[in-house]
Predict the 3D structure of the following.
Amino acid sequence: MKHPSLCMIAACLAGAALAPAQAAPAKTTVAKSAPAPTALAPTVLNAETVNAAGKGAPTDGKPDSATILRAQVLLDRAHFASGEIDGAAGSNVKMALVGFQRKNAIKETGTLDAATWTALNADPAPALATYTLADVDVAGPFTPIPEDMAAKAKLPTLGYASALEGLGEKFHASTKLLQKLNPDKDLTKVGEQILVPNVLDTEPLPKAGKIVVDKSDRTLALLDASGKLIAQFPSSSGTDKDPLPIGTWKVNGVSKNPKFHYNPKLFWDADAGEKKATIPSGPNNPVGVAWIDLSKPHYGIHGTPVPGSIGKTQSHGCIRLTNWDVQTVTASVGPGTEVLLQE
């Protein structure tokens, strides 16, 4: 397997010239477009309100933030993620619901209707749980991450900039949500008990037989060997300048904690005077914590240091996931797994 190299990652992020893509096969339908997001009513976010949300009469029209938050956690636990868990409705939540409904043979409305809540409530786990901060959560070292590539290259590793950032990735949540759930807590103190999304220790996925990346829906889906949908994640992929290479490819292999070899000559938006640089590994590396190498040269599926952008912005050609989602995918795929990239 080729590890992320100078041309591979640079082409992924900067859009190297592509050979004509093979003819695209008939589109594999995984999730359909969903209705526009609904307005949220304000509510108090605590264990009582969130853990009780969705257990009574469903709020089909205007779900409040507690209802959305519980749905996000249960969807994440079912491996139908909506990106950063934040208690806010949006396109990622809608597509996660559509994928979950498809898997469970429910009408694909993209809304939290009664049938969908019945399926979600089959998981009895509380949406929010208490977690005690450990040494590993707060010890660091934490270092601010510079924007300049040359400055990044001088750091020994691109770890977390703060304990809060690390906790956000650990619990698949936005840092603002963690602060809102814990207004009077010290998130840097060992032994502090905090409220977090209950996303740890979920059931692992079986081995996937196929990856389907849908540019129009901004999703990456995993199918089993029989073609049944088993998981779905929000993704970012391709622009007109850096198009997604439509077609069928294969996974060559997986590289964890890759380094990034920066060559400004391959970046159409690089600043004048920039030089080549080797960027150290870490969660704030430009390709995150893992690289899934594809048989299409220079292309891969990888993580990101900016999880809040996934499914909401486009990439420079490759397929980006949150760091936690790409780790889930790497555990389910391997060399030879089929990869369908479609519009």
Remarks:
- The chain is about 25% helix and 15% strand.
- Confidence is low (pLDDT under 50) at residues 5-26, 31-42.
- The CA atoms of residues 35 and 110 lie 7 Å apart.
